[in-house]
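Input sequence (77 aa), recorded before submission:
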Amino acid sequence: MARATDDLLAEALELPPDERARFAADLLESLDYAQEDVEAAWATEIQRRVAQVRAGELESTDWRTVLDRVEKEVLGR
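Predicted structure, token format:
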């Protein structure tokens, strides 16, 4: 990173968490041109997955089962 970028990052990391979050969101929002590509890619992926579900090509699992598995495997509960 350039020195100015390093300095900005150091300053940003000193902000309280809520201000860091707002700062990060503002930075990401400034990249809107990339966001359009991301949204288009997600829309395509969602359409692909919906088509697979409707064609019976994907096995689905209900949310409660997934959550129970995450709690057990990841959170150790």
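Checked by second reader. The radius of gyration is 20 Å.
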